[in-house]
Amino acid sequence: MFCQGEQYVSRSQGLEGSQVNYKLSNVRVFVTDWARAIRFYTDTLEMAVAYRSDEIGWAQMATGESHLALERVDASDSEGRALVGRFLGISLQVADIFATHKFLAARGVEFVAFPEKQPWSGVLAHLRDPDGNILTLVGSGE
What we know:
Largest sheet: 4 strands, mixed
Shape: globular
Order of helices and strands: EEEHEEEHEHEEE
Distance between the termini: 44 Å
Strand content: 35-45%
Structural class: alpha+beta
CATH class: Alpha Beta
CATH architecture: Roll
CATH superfamily: 2,3-Dihydroxybiphenyl 1,2-Dioxygenase, domain 1
CATH topology: 2,3-Dihydroxybiphenyl 1,2-Dioxygenase, domain 1
Number of domains: 1
Number of helices: 3
Mean pLDDT: 90
């Protein structure tokens, strides 16, 4: 459905029943210093690049079936700047959260919360990228 004035128009022709098959494609992280962000995500965090365009300020990091997308915003644009430097609610699963924390901390990554076991038995740690965006690492408590 899409909104057209006061009416909602269905675009579900061709869908079986009323089910929509969603697949997460990209989760966007907004950055102001493009070169610094690329270095951090590729060199420091060691994420592989699936796609990158320096011209348009867009890169997609290969993080499984979906991508962590970096999007450059103009630091002088107040609307764009409001998207930078906040808790993102993005969780990146890692095989060994304690070893990953130790590895990244040794590389100078700032952690705002160290690995901590959660009531649901998982372990979370929060790191800050150079633009102040906070991402979450998640691992098992074993």
